[in-house]
Amino acid sequence: MSIFIAIAAAICGLATLVHVFSVITAATRCRAPANPVPARPDAPPVSIVRPVCGLENFIEETLRSTFTLDYPRYEILFCVASPSDPVIPVVKALMAEHPHVEARLLIGNDRVSSNPKLNNCVKGWTAARHQLIAIADSNVLMPRDYLQRLQDAFRPGSGLVCAPPVGSRPDGFWAEVECAFLNTYQARAQYTADTVGFGFAQGKTMFWRREVLEAAGGIKALGLDVAEDAASTKIVRAAGLEVRLVDAPFEQPLGRRRMLEVWRRQSRWARLRRACFPQFFLPEIASGIVLPTVMLAIVAAGLDVPVVPILVVFAGAWYAAEALLARAAGWHLSRWYPAQALLRDLLIPALWVDGLLGSSFEWRGNAMTVEADGRAT
User: Fold this and answer.
1) For residue 271, which phi and psi values (nearest 5 degrees)?
2) Is residue 46 over pLDDT 90?
3) Helix H segments across 277-306?
4) Which domains does the chain have, with CATH numbers?
5) In DSSP terms, which residues pair with 134 in a beta bridge?
6) Is 162:244 a contact under the CB 8 Å cutoff?
7) pTM for this one?
8) Who is most buried in 61, 77, 127, 149, counting CB within 10 A?
9) How far is it, in rounded angstroms, from Cα 167 to Cα 148?
């Protein structure tokens, strides 16, 4: 066996071991609890800041879930930037439907950064009455024990608790592909990193102790990076604390998705990761099935054994492991999952190149460009 074939075999073996380890790790961490976590009568009060912008799929259902939490005392602060936003009547109707829940609608825009979501959240953070504050995107579907599970994830040395999105209820092929990106690829990677001590903040849900962020300069400090979750990660680590992920992450119902929507979202995230954490972004080119498959083909050809049957068996085992993860975690799983995951993995190198070379993107109608210092205009 030549040294070239030996190197190819080693790369394929290492990639496979990492894949199996990440599947087992995520399956252990992401399994849904058998029963809801009960709320303690003496649980501390919590403020929930929910920035909303426009009418998304399932928006009424996801916002309604904020009102049905099994928690003794919490307040909801809905933040809208524009007084003409069409989501405002939806929020007002839900508040009228649940008068027993303390909720406020805050309208206005504080231009503290080039990040429109952060600008929308500032007034909510400022108005929050409590010391524990959850900032949750409008498309997060909150289970009844949402706040209990966030608090249970706090450990000694934790500065922030987050939860990545898990795609559910996809409608159509491209929504299924987005599920393959969100669940068995990105969530798997994030929980593996968190388990080995390299947790990263995820902006879908960020659960803060107020004093941690205030010590860094308050919510305006999240504008120091182009993405508020990247800034959060750096702030928490600079304080000598850790970002932790909640076990069993929360749903984001997807509905219908078009190809361009899926590409733009993944492209935006790739460009943000490259701008904020280049040292972690660069190895992403080796993720997915493409690299180990190429290495396995080199080994098989070098040993003069049939290449195609070996690759088919290898890909089948690779995606079977991901499917078992989805089953264990209770995530959506299509019968066409291998084809959807294969397309996802074929897109990963293209997204890596796009993230490496591109610097501009659009977020909710806002055109943004990432500058060399990691900020955005």
Assistant:
1) -65, -35
2) yes
3) 278-281, 290-302
4) 3-27+277-363 (no CATH), 45-262 (3.90.550.10)
5) 48, 207
6) yes
7) 0.91
8) 77
9) 22
